[in-house]
From TrEMBL, chains A, B:
GO molecular function, one term: dioxygenase activity
Annotated organism of origin: Rhizobium grahamii CCGE 502
Cofactors that this protein relies on: a divalent metal cation
Name of the protein: 3-dehydroshikimate dehydratase
Record-stated family: Belongs to the bacterial two-domain DSD family.
Keyword Cytoplasm in annotation: no
Length: 628, 628
């Protein structure tokens, strides 16, 4: 698959954009006209820069308001085109995008437009150039690729072809199967963009909200499959207008774009069995979270040990060569790393005590690792002692580690090789069974990056975005989960540091892991057991319980129990949900205990009450409220 | 006019919200239920806090999914209502908002709903409470205030009334005159919200984009006038859901809300001659910019003097008691203040050399000042020497000063009293006539504040928002202008510091004045004259001129002239526009010279090229690009 991206998709000045595009691994680049016009240098210089970076200039765009112009505008329009042809020849690209006319001066008529394109094709042919026609979703007369194709067909000129753009077709819900009958050589280039499903004016939506394939909600893969079915083997090129991307990191957005195309190519390869040069193992099926590892030092480890004991964990094993302890309860494994050298120590030195790594158990760790690398994930390796396991690992949110383990390296075996069991008094556990979910907090403008990362590598889907109301601002929450519920990661995007989430990432960040939710099969028994161990549950306002009783029509006895134990309650069409929180540890890390009685959500409607309680608990006397 | 605001409209925790609302000058507050539920204290405590701050609790809201429920849900719904009545009595408010049912379980039927409300009215009456019914724009059966009113009419109970909300009525384009026939005593409260005109899903629009009356594009004044025409004399209450406000400054957003209501009251008073207790002078008619004043020190003043000379200004007068020089050209007056004490010095000490003040010439400065203060503007006074003028002044963007002057204190007279003319060689001017516009840069989330400030105090309007594409991100631009063009202020809202605008406010800010645009009647003569004085025009990419020639079909001779002088060109349906820029001074301040041949805009489509050129010029060798 040949990959390309339009310069308009990323921030920066033209040379900076080209460098980032090359570095991200694209084969080609579309030069967006304004980027060229603002550049203080000849077209030939732009061409040279691109070629020096190994980039083909796939397209010069856009050329607007061309077809169907009445005289005398018509001849001026052709003159304009000739000027653009001059630039293209100097740039070193043979293809220009003509988008459908939106001018109020334009006249309609398929044959008129076809005849204009035939003439333009003649002129282009004289210079060895080609013209591609694209239907804008809001074009005055032509707003459907089927009509654009009919014009191209009637123009009947080898130098005139069709340009398809997934946004323009999918935003209008045009059947993508209409693409399958187009001869592949008549499709000059294919542009791709996704977008979140928000019902709004098409032009406004397109100009501000487009995003990378897989980052939005449009069926871009089905679109690309229809294109591939024609036999098309040209460039797939991203053309993304997005306010956030325009202000974001040039390199990071370019990297996301490349990942999105590779993932799309993988989807297309799989569903169409087309050979488009993308070959990697399938998405990794996650069995669960193998372990979560904290980086800390000897002193702070004492406090963490106390907290874990209060949660019913017991120290089960110690590492044979490193200062790492393994705590266990049910299927939950927590590693506490106080090794005074190495990556964990470096992470601790920067961020203080935090959960810097997690292990995801998958069907085939080696295959998952290969897939992750094919999708531009950053590998991580560190020295291990002789005979110890080198577990494949990649960098996740904030540079935190994600270890990949499988049945060939299950945690049991891994424990046996690297860890030695310890005997200690067993005070009995608190009924915690599994990690229900891991909650990661990150800057809002990194949400799309990591949602794409998880969904492209692991067999997961993302849930719709939910707004969490923090007294300091809105936090956007979205979940990556799989069908079985064995992998659930909630992602919270913070826009300012006055929110609890924003404070956490400003002060801590690291892996972004802000809380761990453990499951129990009996929330009340667990609450009692925790209480007896000295665990202090987060105090929830009594006002909450009066409302929850009335809202759900709860038995007053149940709501009294909930209130007594500070348990939050929610219900969906599948069942009930119970949530119990710890207070915060450090700059906002906390634990949650949940019981699901069929419920499938994450208690989003309770978040406002949990946040208010956490903020109240965190606020030291005398510290101004908006510092938290 | 009695003013109120819902707690949901601003950020913060409940006590913080109440304090900010009281401080902003509101008479009352609506308690949004979630703010109460998250608060860890009794309803009576909330009531006491509000009363201690002098706030009446005008409403408890919302109560959802009430009317038209089938059995057995119906009786549970009434039970829920009784629980809310308990809270209301303890809070100390007699009014609850019931919004139209959105539940899929609800049954339709006007009479069924009316009968439910009659029963609820009976129950409320027993406790001395009242129930207000509001039609949500997306209600399942009731989405129009006319239908809600019919239900209230048929409920036929003195404790059941109507609640009107401008957003719900105006978003559906319901004729506001339908309000005029409603008896005022049946309207229990009126909620107000504006919104920008963006065509999108009503619920999404309402939940994220509402803003204060006058900050958006809806005809909220016409709505309020229709309400006032009924004889309604109750609360006008703001209910604003806005993502930006939720993350913004609690106090600043509350203050904006209060200003918006006072301004709305003023509009209603004027158009309906209703006595609603708002009385202030009319909006001030601006004649032009009297002067712009720079704060600097003796050393930097030398550089500024050189720049002003190169622009054709001459030093015309010196202040009698302060170290302030007056430079003049045409009607343009620039003051340069190097006084080593006082406000200007303090501003200079913080921000360095910058334009910290401007004087707006109005019809009646004293009246404009009274109006500004009535609209919560912050007054500014500083000591003057005996016999000198105390010019009324208010604080504008970033705390910068806006002096108000008029024919009783014109700059001529002001100059004569406070200034002494100096004789110097007159090298002739460069043809600069007037200040065409002043450009202020500010953080994007302060845009609405200052647009409201200007349009409420001065007889101006705001233009639609335009996106300016900076290589570092999108800058939102909107203009405040009057009919004659004598006052034009362009406002640029920056979202990050990687843009030229964002860099300027991060490094400089102060008054936010980032550039001054002077007008000439002959741009080419002025360009030549400036060149001869040693003025260095900002170099524009030659690529721009090839495009502009083709795009507008310019005579090649003209485009050659433009290119030779680095003049940018634009055209609208009214005429032509020519723009010439200086390089940047310090952290991004610059001058612009424009010639308007009938043109009414501001050359927004040229901004991308101007910004690229300014950034290129600012970038010292070796400094990474994204530091600029």
């Amino acid at each position: 698959m040949k990959t390309s991206i339009a310069t308009v998709s990323i921030s920066g000045e033209l040379p900076e954009k080209l460098e980032a595009i090359a570095k991200a691994g694209f084969d080609g680049v579309e030069i967006f006209e304004n980027d060229f016009l603002a550049f203080d240098g000849r077209p030939s210089e732009v061409g040279r820069m691109a070629r020096d970076l190994g980039l083909e200039i796939t397209l010069f765009q856009p050329f607007r308001d061309f077809e169907g112009m009445p005289k005398p505008l018509r001849s001026r329009t052709f003159d304009r085109a000739e000027r653009k042809f001059d630039i293209m020849q100097e740039l070193g690209t043979d293809l220009v995008l003509v988008c459908s006319n939106v001018s109020s001066a334009a006249l309609g008529g398929i044959d008129r437009a076809a005849s204009d394109f035939h003439e333009l094709g003649e002129r282009a042919a004289k210079r060895g150039l080609r013209v591609g026609y694209e239907a804008l979703a809001w074009g005055r007369f032509i707003s459907d690729h089927r009509d654009a194709w009919e014009i191209v067909r009637r123009a009947n000129h080898p130098n005139v072809g069709l340009i398809l753009d997934s946004f323009h077709s999918l935003s209008r819900k045009i059947d993508v199967n209409s693409i399958r009958s187009i001869p592949p050589e008549r499709i000059f280039i294919v542009q791709l963009a996704d977008a979140p499903l928000i019902d709004m004016d098409l032009l406004y939506w397109s100009r501000h909200f487009r995003n990378m394939p897989g980052e939005g909600d449009l069926p871009v893969a089905a679109f690309a499959e229809a294109v591939a079915a024609t036999g098309y083997d040209g460039y797939f090129s991203l053309e993304i207008f997005n306010d956030q991307f325009r202000g974001g990191s040039t390199r990071a957005i370019a990297a996301d774009g490349h990942r999105s195309l590779i993932y799309l190519g993988d989807q297309v390869s799989r569903s169409t069995r087309a050979t488009i040069g993308i070959d990697m193992p399938p998405r990794a099926s996650a069995q669960g979270v193998g372990f979560v590892e904290f980086a800390t030092d000897e002193d702070e480890a004492v406090e963490l040990d106390g907290l874990l004991n209060a949660l019913g964990f017991r120290k089960a094993a110690v590492h044979r060569s490193k200062k790492v302890n393994l705590y266990q309860q049910g299927e939950i494994r927590i590693l506490v790393n106080v090794e005074p050298v190495g990556f964990a120590y470096a992470a601790y030195a920067v961020h203080g005590t935090f959960a810097y790594a997690m292990a995801l158990a998958v069907d085939d760790a080696a295959a998952a690792y290969r897939r992750a690398l094919a999708l531009d994930a950053e590998p991580f390796r560190q020295p291990v002692a002789d005979g110890e396991l080198q577990i494949p690992a990649i960098r996740g949110v904030g540079g935190g580690l994600i270890y990949l383990i499988d049945h060939k390296s299950p945690l049991g075996q891994f424990s046996n090789i690297d860890f030695e069991a310890v005997d200690g008094e067993d005070a009995g556990d608190a009924g915690l069974k599994r990690i229900d979910h891991i909650a990661q907090t990150l800057a809002y403008d990194e949400m799309l990056t990591w949602l794409l990362f998880y969904t492209a590598i692991f067999e997961t889907r993302k849930t719709p975005m939910v707004d969490i109301i923090d007294p300091g601002g809105v936090v956007r929450s979205q979940v990556v989960e799989n069908d079985t519920g064995s992998l659930r990661i909630t992602m919270n995007g913070a826009e300012n540091r006055r929110t609890l989430a924003g404070h956490f990432i400003a002060e801590k960040f690291g892996s972004g892991i802000q809380h761990l939710a453990f499951s129990t099969d009996d929330i009340f028994a667990t609450a009692k057991s925790l209480r007896e161990r000295g665990f202090k549950a987060l105090h929830i306002s009594p006002n909450y319980y009066d409302d929850v009783e009335a809202r759900f029509g709860l038995d007053p006895h149940l709501s009294e129990q909930l209130k007594a134990e500070n348990i939050l309650y929610d219900r969906d069409e599948h069942g009930e949900y119970f949530q119990l929180y710890s207070g915060t540890y450090g700059e906002g890390f906390f634990f949650e205990i949940v019981e699901r009685r069929g419920y499938r959500g994450y208690g989003a409607s309770n978040a406002i009450f949990r946040i208010a309680a956490l903020k109240k608990q965190m606020r030291p006397e005398g510290v101004p409220k908006d510092a938290i």
